[in-house]
Design brief:
Blueprint lengths: L8 H8 L28 H6 L3 E6 L14 H10 L4 E3 L5 E3 L2 E6 L5 E6 L13 H10 L18 H6 L8 E5 L2 E5 L7 H8 L32 E7 L3 E6 L12 E6 L2 H10 L16 H6 L3 E6 L2 E7 L9 H10 L2 H8 L4 E2 L24 H10 L7 E7 L3 H16 L3 E7 L1 H9 L5 E7 L8 H4 L17 H12 L3 H18 L3 E12 L3 E2 L16 E2 L2
Parallel strand pairs: 1-10, 14-15, 14-16
Antiparallel strand pairs: 2-3, 4-5, 5-7, 6-7, 8-9, 9-10, 11-17, 12-16, 12-17, 13-17, 18-19
Length: 553
């Protein structure tokens, strides 16, 4: 086995000691919780907060479960990340580092991944964390009665046979010993490591003993997750108000320095008020502030940190239409729209322009794409004329309801397109209805948002010609043989360098051929109180090093 991906814990510990901290100014925030929560010793958490033992976090909506594999919502997954370990995790620069696995190896052919677990890891009930837990959790995704999401699923040998009921185990999930597990794949899948780092929360197999796969989501652990092994452990959930967590004293990366964490579920206006009174310490990946709140927050002397977000807004193009076949027409659509002006007007500057669907914080981002798609209405007119565009043709632009910023962008985009001679009819439509019409291929142009579901650069599900609806997400019906080849080479690549080269080429193809018009992606506006040290907002969130956070007042 060739060690092409081995990482060790020594580099992680060394990096942890060098974590950057904000410059801290002492202050005395009110920091009252306001929910009447009581600590185990009978003292109020408000009193503990004044002693510096409680950190208060902002989350904008309630979780639907505490089992992260069983929710498509970011809120349950966020809390799951705080409570359940993953084999690997992201650090501040979005690169993957060890976690429950102290090292891993990838075979030379890219078909086998072997993970060595930290031998001292234990669940919060004292039970050792073993390779059996890892195998049980991953096997669950192949069970025919599994009701959770399948984002972590890879083409593991024997997975489909197990799902079909023709095998009793998944052949390619191999428990080598108590602290070693191997995954054997049917084909090289370079996204495997990234997906494991983001979506594979290891669950305690013994806690679900005797529970059928179809009933896992209804288990008591979904409401009261008492057996965990992440940095924090569960205390209580006051429905739609807050989730109380405490430091896991046996956490494998070291016990968190703050004893209690209260994740408050608040509206943005309430969050702003609580930052003003000192009742909040930080935003989270699932609770960020609005652009219009920034001046007020900055006046308070808080650390306001915009970071690249994960939700990309685009204008879809129906490639089934013969009049969109000439790429000069699609290029004209990009040159006609002043995307930076939209960011400035609607997001108050808190956003970035992209020409391909890889965020700028990703190590796979290709900066050479930035030379494409500059706002140039005269060039747009020229390209349309060269393509023989019929300026009497009417085009529909569908704008789905639900996202206020996107709705406001519709008339602005319409004006830009009309300014270069296009006739655009704007139609506002409920999102589900628009999705049906897009899937049926009935649209000309439409506005749509999409998340970077993972930091992995693979785009086959959204842009490969084999990923057409309804099974795939290539709703624009883009078909580019060179792009397909680049996606396939990227997915089959074994080394980072090979994959980077394939994805660099793909991004250049997309920037030139314009499968869709990438409009903008908003920045997440994070806020950190001056009493909270070592909490550094980045694109992967604020909580990537939560065990290192400290309270200075």
């Amino acid at each position: 086995m060739v060690d092409s991906g081995t990482m060790n814990r020594r580099s992680l510990i060394k990096g942890g000691a060098a974590l950057g901290a904000f410059a801290m100014a002492l202050r005395e925030p009110l920091h009252a919780l306001g929910y009447g929560v009581t600590a185990p010793d009978g003292n109020s958490l408000t009193a503990l907060a004044q002693q510096g033992g409680v950190a208060n976090l902002f989350m904008s909506s309630s979780p639907d479960t505490f089992l992260p594999h069983y929710s498509i919502g970011a809120y349950a997954r966020y809390l799951g990340t705080l409570m359940f370990p993953r084999l690997l995790r992201y650090q501040d620069d979005a690169t993957v580092i060890p976690y429950l696995a102290e090292s891993y190896e990838v075979s030379g052919d890219g078909l086998s991944y072997t993970f060595k677990l930290v031998p001292t890891a234990v669940w919060s009930d004292g039970t050792p964390v073993t390779a059996t837990d890892v195998a049980w959790t991953y096997t669950l995704a192949f069970n025919k009665d599994y009701t959770g999401t399948r984002q972590v699923e890879a083409p593991v040998v024997g997975g489909e046979a197990y799902r079909a009921g023709t095998a009793e185990t998944v052949e390619g999930i191999v428990v080598v010993d108590d602290h070693t597990i191997r995954f054997d794949l049917e084909a090289p899948t370079s996204s495997f490591i990234e997906n494991v780092a983001q979506f594979f929360w290891v669950l305690p197999a013994h806690a679900f003993e005797g529970t059928a796969a179809i009933d896992i989501d209804k288990h008591e652990m979904a409401r009261n997750p008492t057996v965990t092994a992440g940095p924090l452990t569960f205390v209580k959930y006051e429905t739609d108000q807050y989730v109380e967590l405490k430091a896991n004293e046996q956490f494998i990366l070291g016990a968190p320095k703050i004893s209690t964490f209260v994740v408050k579920i608040l509206r943005n206006d309430v969050a702003l008020a609580q930052f003003e009174t000192g009742e909040l310490d930080t935003t989270t990946k699932v609770g960020v502030m609005l652009p219009q709140d920034v001046p007020s927050l900055e006046k308070l002397g808080l650390n306001v940190v915009p970071v690249p977000g994960s939700a990309l807004q685009s204008m879809g193009i129906n490639h089934l239409r013969d009049y969109f076949q000439d790429k000069r027409v699609r290029q004209a659509l990009v040159h006609a729209i002043d995307r930076q002006a939209i960011i400035d007007a609607l997001l108050q500057g808190y956003g970035q322009v992209l020409n391909a669907k890889v965020p700028k914080f990703s190590p796979y981002y290709n900066p050479e794409t930035e030379g494409f798609g500059q706002y140039d209405p005269e060039l747009a007119k020229q390209l349309l004329q060269e393509a023989g565009w019929d300026f009497e043709r009417k085009l529909s632009l569908m704008v789905p309801t639900g996202n206020v910023t996107r709705e406001r962008s519709g008339p602005i985009i319409q004006q830009y397109l009309q300014a270069v001679g296009l006739k655009i009819e704007l139609e506002t439509i409920e999102f589900a209805s628009m999705s049906q019409r897009v899937t049926a291929g009935e649209m000309d142009l439409w506005l749509v948002g999409s998340s970077y579901v993972t930091f992995d650069p693979d785009q086959t599900s959204s842009f490969h010609s084999a990923s057409l609806p309804p099974s795939g997400w290539n709703s624009w019906r883009w078909n580019n043989a060179e792009a397909d080849k680049a996606m396939e080479e990227g997915l089959a690549a074994v080394s980072f360098e090979e994959r980077k080269a394939a994805n660099d080429r793909l991004q250049m193809i997309m920037a030139d051929d314009v499968p869709v018009v990438f409009l903008y992606y908003p920045e997440d506006i994070h806020v950190v109180s001056t009493r909270l040290a070592n909490a550094t907002p980045v694109s992967v969130g604020v909580e990537w090093n939560i065990e290192a956070w400290e309270l200075t007042a």
